[in-house]
Amino acid sequence: MRTYMRITLGTLGIAAAGAALGGCNFDVSNPGPVQGKYLNDPRAAQAIVNGAGRDLSEALNWIAYTGAAVSREVFPAGSTGSFGITPNQQIGLLTDDETNTHWDLAQRARFEADSGNKFMKRSLTDYAKNKLAAQILLWSGYTYRLLGENMCEAVIDGSAAMPSTAFLDSAIARFTTALGVAQAAGDTRSVSAALAGRASVLADLGRWPDAIADAQQVADGFVYQMPYYVTDVDQYNRIYWATANQPYRAHTVWNTPYETYYASTKDPRVPWDTSTSQKVGDAAVLSLGRVQWHFETKFSKKDAAMNLSSGWEMRLLEAENLLMGGDVPNAMMLINKHRVALKLQPWSATTADEAWTALKRERGIELWLEGRRLGDLRRWKATSAPGDLSPLEQAGSATSYLSANQNLCFPIPLSEKQTNPHFTSP
Amino acid sequence: MVARRFTLAVRVLTAGLVAAALAGGSTAARAQAGEATGTVSGTVRHAGTENPLGSAQVTIAGTRIGAVSRDDGSYAITGVPAGTQRVHVRLIGFAPVDRTVTVPAGGTATLDFALATSAVQLDQVVVTGTAGQARRREVGNSISAVTAADIPEAKTDVSAMLQGRVPGASIELSTGSSGAGASIRLRGNTSVALSNQPLIYIDGVRVRSDEYPKNVPPAGSQLRSTNYYASPLNDINPEDIDRIEVLKGAAATTLYGTEAAAGVIQIFTKRGQSGAPSWNFETSQGINRLRPFGIDDGGACSSTQACAKYLYINPWLRNGWRQAYNMSVNGGATNGPRYFLSGGYNDDQGVLPLDDERKYVVRANFSFAPSPKLNIDWNTGYTNDHITNTPAGNNAAGLTLNAFRRDRNYYGSANIDTISQVLQYQLNTWINRMIMGATVSYAPFAHLTNKLTIGIDRANVENRNLRPFGFPESPTGSLSDQQWANQTLTSDYVGTWEQDVKFLHSTFAWGGQASTIDTRDVEAFATNFTGPGDPTVSTGSQWNGSENRIKIVTGGFFLQEMLGWRDRVFLTGGVRFDKYSAFGDSLGVQAYPKVSASYVISDEPFWQSTFAHHVANTLKLRAAYGQAGRAPGAFDAIQTYDGVGWGGQPALRTRNVGNPHLGPERSAETELGFDAASLNNRLSVDFTWYHTRTSDALLNVDFPPSEGFLRSQLENIGALQKSGFEIGTNATLWQSQPLTWTAGVNLALSKSKVLSLGNIAPFEIANNGWAIEGQPLAVLRGHYITNPDDIAPPNIVDKHLYGPSQPTRIIGVTSALQLPKGIEISARGEYQGGNYIDEDASYEALSRSVKWPTCFDAYAKAARDNNENNWTARERVECDTKNGYLKSDLFIFKADFFKLRDVTVKAAIPKRFVPGAHTASLSLSVQNWYSWKNKDFRLFDPEMAGNDGFNAQVRYVSEQIPAPATVLGRLQVTF
Hints:
- The complex is a heterodimer of chains A (426) and B (975).
- Helices cover 49% and strands 5% of the residues of chain A.
- Chain A has helices spanning 2-22, 45-70, 87-90, 100-123, 131-150, 165-185, 188-204, 208-215, 238-241, 257-265, 311-324, 328-335, 337-341, 352-366, 373-382, 414-417; strands at residues 34-35, 75-76, 153-154, 162-163, 223-226, 251-252, 272-273, 295-296, 306-310.
- Chain A has a two-stranded antiparallel sheet.
- Chain B is globular.
- Chain B has a 22-stranded antiparallel β-barrel. In chain B, strands 11-16-17-14-15 form a five-stranded mixed sheet.
- The interface between A and B is large, with 92 and 96 residues.
């Protein structure tokens, strides 16, 4: 009997040793990702605000670059994959299977700004006059503007499709709140940013008197920018990096209206350059084979900032408002105001058509590569604004290589359609 | 340099092995002193060819005394108690033989054996999945085994040992770069969202089965790399392996619990056998050579002339020299310590100019039985591997991509010197791997056994990725260094109690396992070096770092009862209970049941006395049902945000929605089958039908991007199904002087289906592979040209369902001819098919208007007729982007292929040429030289993979080269 007991105890001992050596503590907490509950801590506010800003910067990167290609602010020069321009986009088409990233990044930025704002409302006792609160509201407003100006339709928090003006309406609400918080906080720079942002959105919506009221409060030299950083590739200015020859030479200013314009004027707002060692893009495009590589230098480094709003843009809004009222002389004075400051030859126009042509050209120059051109083209098309575009940026033109069916906005992509119950499954 | 390294390695290894062997030998001598014993010696030969048989286990019945026959068939067992003894001889593939001999005290009795081949061996012991060990006759599920001694060719790696030899196993090669590993799928994919790699155990110790991390910087494009993944499995020296057991599904893997639904592979390394030291030296020398994978347009092909046959990379290709040296010794005392010690050096030069893999491996396995009731096994394996690579894959700074695209590459030039600038890129990987385990077996009396295994698998990987100062695409240089470590701790206890109750034999087993997997990953990245030189991360002017630490704990216990009736009917039932640290908070212990039965009907008297015995002289019927799981990842159950930083400031970003109810997906499998032998055991048939249903399948549910979380969330909402059958046949077609001819065919047919997606819409898993209800998992979906060969505009339909991504037909064929004088000729081929694969490299090139070989005919026609009206529909789609037809999902092709995996000729070297040797043989193997592929698959190799890891549920072809063919000569000498 004692033998059996010894055996039994020995067996159990071995089993127990095995279990102990396994160290079966299943309550494992892995470091790294931050659990959602910690965002309610007021000390997380700065990181929340920066997260919204960073995500807007990435969305702006993608939309501004693809928008530039489709609207011929730049011409495709090769790459179609990473940092490239797809064959569809090369001919001006934005299809729902190629715009997931643009939509997704912008929607994430929008959600993060909105949800971050809610976290901060709960956690910040001085929310109504807190500069961080003003900042996240500004990021939110500019994100909604980016979506409203570039997307064909709106979807918010899993809703059904709505007109894209729903984004713009939300932008106005965010800018308005931001304005109040910034004023309470004594943050004059944020006040101007909110006014400029709201003015542009009001113009998009055709609410010109309100737009001009805001625009006139913004000084000529005011600039509000989205910063970019050298920290990692996602934080680089994407338009720069896509043609930095490291290794991408994916776009060129060749065969755009800005090529010859800059060559003749040296307007510092649309600069480009050439390379002695690399004369052509990084692959062949369309039926053209290799095309000349004239790289833009407006963004000449990884951390080149991109304008979100400026006083000069406000002047052009005021000019557009005057043109709609038929006031060509005063409109031309405003159109040329920045040109005069830059010592450039002013545009001349005697007719409304000529003035509209000048306005369209000048807005293209002033806002070049800032993700605004598609919105402008769409707005002018919707209102049948007079004035001509360059043949190099016209749909269906033989020299622009743009399809007659050129798209002026990003469709709701498959990533939304395939997951949102309001849409038919594919 | 290599020669010097080798010399040093051999000296160190030899010194170590000699010391150990002498120690073992002296122990043996001490153990034998003063006993009334004698020696039994003789030879083991093939009953047909009379060729000597090595690796046969010769044991004295009722004792632990025994020996293993050498390659010349000789054996000697010392310390055998004088008197009449029964001697057993067992060798896989041959019928066991028992004979009686009288052993004179202090003398030697001679006993020779002639073994006849035997197709089915129901008394062979298997270990994996059986709770202790069991004879095949007792096991109700299918279990495949590969025995190293049966493999005639020079072994290159563990993955290659399994190719074409295990029905239902698909060994999926990746690329032709040095160090590239193969993924393994057993009965296809089991999971949509989780790893489909089987669990791997070595000598009872769980080891890493998923790939090592890719050598790529933590910042920027994840393609600045060679774009392959190394396999931990290839750290194991194939020369150290005794056998491999493979369980393919949940019916067999229940006792492994939550992570075992994709199957289990267990590798058993060689162990020491009592007797004098037996030395084995093996070397193989040969070349790796890339076979053509492009289109032969008749263009000149040389080191200075790029040609379409090799997709223009031939100027950079070389015949990579391959050399391996292995030395081992085994022996030990009859009742004392036994040892198996080995060391090896392997230098595998790749076909790309910078590719090389140099590997040192050392193994020390010891066994010690201090008493008849106690046995201790200690196993240690260490590998040191250094891999250098050429940048490849879909890497803008890589050789393959830029060579393939010629003048439309990132350099805008097809010039060899210009493209060769990418060779400044330096990619180094160092792998240090230690696997150590101890197993204590304690059988206090006849009824009770206990076995405890404790083990550790530690892998340290350093990936260093340098684009030096002056590199064309990174002029100021960049460097990343990754220090990655994975540690798996295993403890495994199994107890069994055997009891005879009247006509029943009961084996009750209980046990538990625990594993802790701890992965730590620290990466540093720097750019902007001050100038030329050999930099470190510290010398960069801009730094970036990342750290990841993940720990997962799994543990469980099981109970199992097996009842045997008259040693011919066996019924087994069991259950495994599991807990896992990554389950959601609301989830408790998970239970996985199993039940199986086997019936050796051919042992029944009625069978023996009827005609049935002549049809099948051995027949075992079997049935099994079991469940196993697959567990989610460490962070899947929790809502989380990522700290991403923004210009050096803190920033948070949405990561994971979280799901507190997250649990494992559960696969339930039913197997029915039989093992039969006929024609006097000269023909064997192993048939298995299986049906697996996975419920609570974890699917990556994507949320609308407008809800802000872009990452998908795992949800237990799906249901999947797979089924098929596997047939393994082996036949001795001829067994008489002067030759024996054997042949085997493995056939596996399978199909899978997505039963339910839990009310979510069909979704793309990866690489144009979709999860769609009623369709295979995954099904390739994309655009399709309905009139590809018409001289007309293309008619293109969207969302065309091409077919499954995984092979549905796998056929392995082997044949061997054994001739006198130890001459053996063998061949092995493998066909895989029924599936489709996305050949993305062509799309990537054509979308950039690269002049591509598949369009050469179209270009010629256009040049001749000065228009494109005479192009076929496919040519209009592919060959001119301005037509606007080109889509990335138009390049999906049937992936059927056949490869002659190996042809080997082996011959014994007469002893007079190798003085002092017991045996010596020379063999020549040609591996993967000949292949066939579906004609639709015009470029590349359907067996290739893209830039993804082993867990890519859907493979694709990227800008890689295929795995090269190998020609190897092998010399093996035993002393």
